[in-house]
Amino acid sequence: MLELRGVCAGYGGVPALHDISLSVEAGEFAAIVGPNGAGKSTLFRTISGIVSATRGSIRFENLELVDLPAARRAHLGIAHVPEGRQVFPSLSVRENLEMGAYTARARRAWRDSIERIHTWFPVLATRAASLAGALSGGQQQMLAIARGLASSPRLLMLDEPSMGLAPAVADEIFERIVQIHAQSGLTVLLVEQRVAEALHFAQRGYVLEAGRVVLSGAHDQLMRDDRIRQAYLGM
């Protein structure tokens, strides 16, 4: 579904990604992990078109994305839920969800989407009329994920969904993500600071360090790798 080959990108002429190659199959749960500053968020911004690739190929369902603007990529079914939640605080929960359903594909699927969203995140149904800014941090993260789902995506990219949350709340968020993938078959690409959880549930993983993919493989392969066990799992 998603394939990157030799992708380079950066900010103001300063490179941040170096020769990135990775692939995500349809229906797969893939994770990208690595230390702070490794380029994980830049990678997501490059896939979604916020940051321009300076070299390489980004293909989504066999369509080359490099020259497509970010808005066009969203219409293809790529939903990017950025780090830091970034909900619209002065809009209601319902209005935030409606903001996510702006593509033609999302509008057609709105009734089914909102029903599933309320099943996965019941608190968003009970607080539909509340301002998003009045929600707790965990509820705002649920809303950010739900707004991505409201776009009826083919690929859901989640950037650090547990960031800044208490451990118990982060656990709940992660459980919901796993549930959404299992029940919907949606393709999920996750950047997550909770490396153990991310690699435990992911079918495929990539390790980024200093803007480069230094390790990749299927779940079992990575969990057996001594470098992963020592550097990220504390074993």
List the strand order in the largest sheet.
Answer: 6-7-8-3-9-10
Per DSSP E runs of 2 or more residues, the count of β-strands stands at 10
Radius of gyration: 17 Å
Instruction: Indicate the CATH class of one domain.
Output: Alpha Beta
CATH evolutionary superfamily of one domain: P-loop containing nucleotide triphosphate hydrolases
CATH architecture of one domain: 3-Layer(aba) Sandwich
Let me know the average pLDDT: 93
Q: Classify the helix fraction into a percent range.
A: 40-55%
**N- and C-termini, Cα separation:** 34 Å
Please identify the structural class as seen in this structure. alpha/beta
Oligomeric description of these chains? single chain
Main sheet properties: 6 strands, mixed
The CATH topology assignment of one domain is Rossmann fold
Count of alpha and pi helical runs: 11
What does this structure look like?
The chain has 235 residues and is of the alpha/beta class. It has a domain at 1-25 and 35-77 and 155-162 and 189-235: P-loop containing nucleotide triphosphate hydrolases (Rossmann fold), CATH 3.40.50.300. It is built from eleven helices and ten strands. A six-stranded mixed β-sheet has the order 6-7-8-3-9-10, sandwiched between helices. Strands 2-1-4-5 form a four-stranded antiparallel β-sheet, covered by helices on one side. Strand 9 (204-209) and strand 10 (212-218) form a beta hairpin. Helix 3 (93-100) runs parallel beside helix 7 (137-150). The longest helix has 18 residues, at 167-184. The two termini are 34 Å apart. The mean pLDDT is 93.
